[in-house]
Protein 1
Amino acid sequence: MVANKKPVGVITRGTTNPNRLRRVDRYITNQAILKQTKEPLLVDLGFGAYPRTAIELLERASAINPTTRLLGIEIDPERIRVAQPFATNDLLFQLGGFEIPIPQTLNKTKVTLIRAMNVLRQYDESDVQAAWSLMQSRLEDGGLIVEGTCDEIGRLATWVTLDNSKVLSLTFSFRLLSLQTPSKIAERLPKVLIHHNVEGESINKFLTELDAAWASHSGLSVFSPVQRFSACVKDLLNSGWPITNTPKRWRLGELTVDWDAVKPRVVLL
Ligand SMILES: C[S@@+](CC[C@H](N)C(=O)[O-])C[C@H]1O[C@@H](n2cnc3c(N)ncnc32)[C@H](O)[C@@H]1O
């Protein structure tokens, strides 16, 4: 499928930064699907004013699976024009939107993984479900969407992971060395959650408990923020939060929790 209709979505600010998405890339390159798929096709949706983060994702994914190909999709034709000189056999750029058009030369009808970082942030919350559904319809079996937000230089990031039918999880990623208060990350929640960090919502309870655990383990910062953070995650697990990632990931400042435990009470449609 190649874009022959108007791309779905709107042009938004193209702000990006080199290496800004390293945390989410580290998560993506740890996904089993990347290793298991022959010639995985990754999509960087909304790569921004220049395609540096798309190039970085391909480099990182290729180190895990050398048969990886990456398709950068932008809704702004000017950004596609800027990216074209960087195209190679494994790195293509295509004008499009949430409908995820695939150039015929790739000989594929569906994609393995879509990374959409800092794209939905500039949309309304009521646009999220439709964008997710359209992207989900473009995933091959076992495919994933990673959709979220980060700060300007990628020290704080959050993202949701979806398969082709449901939302699976919410992941937080903190640069532990500069972490003061974990709930600061609330400013970078994915669009679906950012307006729900209020009393009575699960995401607010989760972040409040994370802050309390962080404060109670301040003594461990003498040893390292890594130990302090790991102790916090253990506390949250012990109090029943369905945290699904492993201590190895906690040491990277990454925390993944089941979506059902933190999703908004009401999702706007
Ligand atoms: C803030 S930039 C993010 C750049 C990069 N992903 C990053 O995180 O650094 C958002 C980009 O998404 C693009 N965009 C917005 N909606 C889109 C859509 N539906 N399909 C493709 N690109 C889209 C905008 O044109 C803009 O260039």
Protein 2
Amino acid sequence: MANLAEADVKQKVRNFYDQIGWREVGEGVYQNARYEDLRPVSREYIHRCHMRVMQHFKPEGQYFLDAGSGPIQYPEYLEYSRGYRARVCADISIVALREARQRIGDRQTGGHGLFVVADVANLPFRPGVFDGLMALHTIHHLPIEEHRAAYSELYRVMGGNTSAVVVNGWDTSLLMVLFVSPLRWIRRTRKRAQRYFGKSTSRKAQDDEEEIIARPEPKGTFVSKRNAVWLQREIGSEIPLEIRVWRSVSVRFLRAYIHPWLGGRWILRLLYWSEERFPHFFGKYGQYPLIVIRKGRIGDRVKPVNVDD
Ligand SMILES: C[S@@+](CC[C@H](N)C(=O)[O-])C[C@H]1O[C@@H](n2cnc3c(N)ncnc32)[C@H](O)[C@@H]1O
């Protein structure tokens, strides 16, 4: 059972999503999308990364679990469960579930959604009931002591011959450190130069440049992230998992380096091609891994998978 501090964290996370994260700020766009790069230049790459998730699911089945579903905020998300009889959206935010119902519908409206207020670390489902499962950007909202419980719960409710996909960010990504650190240096140098030579650019122009160069990620709610070594040691020793790439670059990277006038679309095509070629390398050292959990036939012995490039 969660202790008081853990319950407090969850309450804060729930309040955040109920009051801020899932507030609509534009047509079909939630405040949460501020964490995403929605510019046309990045659209194709982001779409293809979303579609990667689907490769790991059976095309059809009975029940599909979307743990921490949010409002099913991107159109690609609707595709994942198209071949399933029902998609069970489980979330601690009631606002998320209400919005999800609008998007996917329920039996009364001819849709295939079912909606359950539930904690991913303590799922109210029988063992083995799901044919497809995912938890996207959700487990990182749990206190670190509960990550293992969340993975175990997903594993428990998976049916035989089934895969689950978990996407989270790493706490640090070697690739992003290499690319994003110079941005800080450029910013500091520019500030020093401005102090020394006096301000030559207008306030507005400076603000725009800062936005492009090193805009910090917007502040959100509680998250706890770790690295690949931690995941393999703490979770992979008990549950068979494979670390692949979901998306190797952060939004900060995209906003700083990817622009139409710099051939951004082509850079992203090359990046996507490289990620497909070396999914384990980019999964480990990029920003966002796609963690595949596989369950064999019920009764098979569990053998943890350890993938080293
Ligand atoms: C960053 S959003 C991601 C939503 C969606 N999976 C996506 O990728 O767009 C995180 C979601 O997880 C939910 N969440 C956070 N902690 C949770 C928990 N312990 N159990 C279930 N859902 C949780 C939040 O309410 C929120 O809707």
Protein 3
Amino acid sequence: MLPAEFTPLEESAPGPHRRRVRYAGKNPRRFEDKYKELNPGLYAADVAKVIAAGKTPAGSHRPIMVAEILDVLALQPGETAVDCTLGFGGHARELLARLTPGGRLIGLDVDPIEHSKTTARLRAAGWGEASFIPVRSNFAGLVKVLAELQVDRVDAILADLGVSSMQLDDPSRGFSFKIDGPLDLRLNPSRSPSAAHWLADISAAKLAAALVENADEPQAELLARELIVRRAKTPFTRTVQLAEIVRAILLQHRSRYDRSADDDCVRRVFQAIRIAVNDEFGVLDLFLRRLPSCLKTGGRVAMLTFHSGEDRRVKQAFREGLRSGIYAATNEEIMRAGPEERRANPRSASAKLRWAVRA
Ligand SMILES: C[S@@+](CC[C@H](N)C(=O)[O-])C[C@H]1O[C@@H](n2cnc3c(N)ncnc32)[C@H](O)[C@@H]1O
């Protein structure tokens, strides 16, 4: 049986029937050919096999550290909570099940494409307007969102930072260096600049700084210098093109080929660009400053981070809040996914969970 979060969207939104072009092989590699994973309602057994193999079905996302988050947030029926990063709605379903009857969840996401799909999926799963309030917004604007909803403060807040598997897997979003697509990397594609535009204008010094600050890249100066030289010959427009250019730079400055080290480096370059393009640290800093004013006394916040730049900020904000008396408690030691979850979902391996309770 499929987990509840895989309720098919198609059931809620019937459209004119169109014959699907079937992939002829057994294990499709291209996102568009994974029609079984993209239609869990029709191919439940195939999707269950993908999950059992420790993979995330295309077009979906598996929520991370659910039990630990539920424990920390300790939701009660009748309470009001915010999921700042709705994504596929995996955490949201669990929060909703504990807030009802009588409670409500406000579900934010900055991504207009996935936010509307997830809203439709949650509505189809029976979460009506009284319990689930979707708002397409950056979480840096939470104070304004609550004011517009005439909600003073809330009982609990969750933020599961970064990108979802749906965003990573969809080549047209340009988040992955493994599948070719436009070099975009925007969480909200209606906002400019795209990664291609950002890279077209950036100086070598600023690029090197972004590689260090956003991804702790040890070869930042070399990569930045060489990328700017190569950009003068050909603009960077595609994901695979940029990945290959980074690999070529590494090969030129190293005596031996090392695919895995190269992939790690390419991953860091993409992470640094994504963080810059979406101003992820800027909005996180703003959110952390405004967060206490959104929580009731005794209100709980849980934050999942996926790299050191994010975790550092959350740790510092919670510790300073504890010292100044804004928070009554926070975790000293970070919480991590258990071995079983890491095995079943490798994307959980880098997750760090921090929480705080409002004084
Ligand atoms: C890791 S996913 C969340 C997955 C979700 N918890 C689930 O169970 O399906 C992160 C989501 O946060 C969104 N996001 C990232 N930064 C954001 C921001 N500043 N404001 C609102 N949403 C943001 C992304 O668009 C993405 O959908």
